[in-house]
Design a protein that fits this description.
InterPro entries: Aldolase_TIM (IPR013785), PRAI_dom (IPR001240), RibuloseP-bd_barrel (IPR011060), TrpF_fam (IPR044643). It is an enzyme of class 5 (isomerase). By secondary structure, the protein is of the alpha/beta class. The chain has 7 helices and 10 strands. The chain has a single domain, classed as Aldolase class I (TIM Barrel, Alpha-Beta Barrel), CATH 3.20.20. Helix 1 runs parallel beside helix 2 and helix 1 runs parallel beside helix 7.
């Protein structure tokens, strides 16, 4: 099995982006959702992306954003990948000239494979924890045994991961990548460089 990739999401500061890159993060996430404590402005996103070294994928997270508003952001921010974290249909995820991943919020009884099949054009799916009324960033893990062993697209595992539990999560789910935000923070939107390093080290060693 190839090494599991790591995404550090909810980056709001240049120094945190650089620390994540130095630690070996494959991707960073920028949240364009005003209600999130980790939301960034266009100007913040531009500064963060401009500071990054090559080969770090920049991911923009959106929640049910109107198409015209999202296109305005893409005209100003050179994102590599889009992450749709709301109730977007496949049609609402397409047409931006960027690859995308679709977040699915997992709860008992879900048919994850059937939900994935609704997004055939997605590059992968991100599995997060279902909490009523909250699109993500809850800091809560879901029951990893709900994830089928064989799925047709790359799986990015999120939801309540920490440096201490990521190895166990990888052993159980065997995801393509892991995604963390709150589990490596000293405060909402402020990353702890030591925790970021510990998370990526644990993910790579799993």
């Amino acid at each position: 099995m190839s090494a599991v990739r790591s995404k550090i999401c909810g980056i709001t500061r240049v120094e945190d982006a650089l620390a994540a890159a130095a630690a070996g993060a494959d991707a960073i996430g920028l949240v364009f959702y005003a209600r999130s404590p980790r939301a960034v402005s266009v100007a913040q996103a531009q500064q963060i992306i401009a500071a990054l070294p090559p080969f770090v994928t920049t991911v923009g997270l959106f929640v049910d954003m109107p198409r015209a508003e999202l296109q305005q952001i893409l005209a100003q921010v050179p994102l590599d990948l889009l992450q749709f974290h709301g109730d977007e249909s496949v049609e609402q995820c397409e047409g931006y000239g960027r690859p995308y991943i679709k977040a699915l919020r997992v709860k008992a009884g879900d048919d994850i494979a059937a939900q994935m099949a609704q997004y055939p054009s997605a590059s992968g799916v991100l599995l997060d924890t279902f909490v009523e009324g909250v699109p993500g960033g809850t800091g809560l893990a879901f029951d990893w045994s709900l994830v089928p062993a064989e799925l047709p697209k790359p799986v990015i595992l999120a939801g309540g991961l920490t440096p201490d539990n990521v190895a166990a999560a990888i052993a159980r789910v065997r995801p393509y990548a892991v995604d963390i935000s709150g589990g490596v923070e000293s405060a909402k939107g402020i990353k702890d460089a030591d925790k970021v390093r510990a998370f990526i080290r644990a993910a790579r060693g799993a």
